[in-house]
């Protein structure tokens, strides 16, 4: 069985929702207050706060109180755990596909050449 990483589970769970991905994409441009992140979603503030809580719980964002507003910052270093796992999986599957392709090539008939053609 593959090793189980709860942190990786939280990251992929957080990224599974398009609203959270959109929020994270916006935070990739720089810090933003919750009200700015909520505006394009059309969701109620408590729902937005739940989404932000999932992102923060996964370590993808950090929040801080700034006066009366809550400011959110992306934590892109957390994504390295997911990108490392994806790169490992890609390498594994590319190796398997290369071996499969080599095997299929052994099953393919060889094209005839003048040296191997039977003369009538």
Automatic annotation (TrEMBL):
PANTHER family: SLL0088 PROTEIN (PTHR38600:SF2), TRANSCRIPTIONAL REGULATORY PROTEIN (PTHR38600). It comes from the Bacteria. This is Helix-turn-helix transcriptional regulator. GO terms for molecular function: DNA-binding transcription factor activity. InterPro entries: ArsR-like_HTH (IPR011991), HTH_ArsR_DNA-bd_dom (IPR001845), WH-like_DNA-bd_sf (IPR036388), WH_DNA-bd_sf (IPR036390). Residues 1-94 form the HTH arsR-type domain.
């Amino acid at each position: 069985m593959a090793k189980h990483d709860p942190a990786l589970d939280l990251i992929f769970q957080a990224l599974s929702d398009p609203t959270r991905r959109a929020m994270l994409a916006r935070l990739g441009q720089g810090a933003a207050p919750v009200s700015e992140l909520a505006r394009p979603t059309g969701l109620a503030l408590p729902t937005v706060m739940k989404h932000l809580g999932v992102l923060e719980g996964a370590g993808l964002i950090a929040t801080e109180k700034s006066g009366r507003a809550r400011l959110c910052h992306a934590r892109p270093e957390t994504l390295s755990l997911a990108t490392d796992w994806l790169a490992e999986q890609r390498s594994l599957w590319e190796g398997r596909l290369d071996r499969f392709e080599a095997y299929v090539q052994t099953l393919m008939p060889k094209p005839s050449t003048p040296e191997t053609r039977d003369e009538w």
